[in-house]
Amino acid sequence: MARFLAGYWRDVRRYVTSRSPRYFVGALAVVLGAAILLLPSPYVIEMPGPTQDVLGKVREGQVIAVSGSGVETHRDSGKLLLVTVSASGVPGYPIINAQAVWGWANPHVEVMPREAVVPVGQTADEYQKKVDSDMTGSQDSAAKAGLAYMKAHADELGISKATLKNLKVTMHVDSIGGPSAGMMYTLGLIDKLTPAEETGGETIAGTGTIEAKGKVGKIGGIRLKMLGAKRDGATWFLAPESNCADVVGHVPDGLRDVKVSTLDEAYQALVAIGRGQADNLPHCTA
Question: Which of 79, 192, 225, 259 is catalytic?
Answer without folding.
Answer: 225
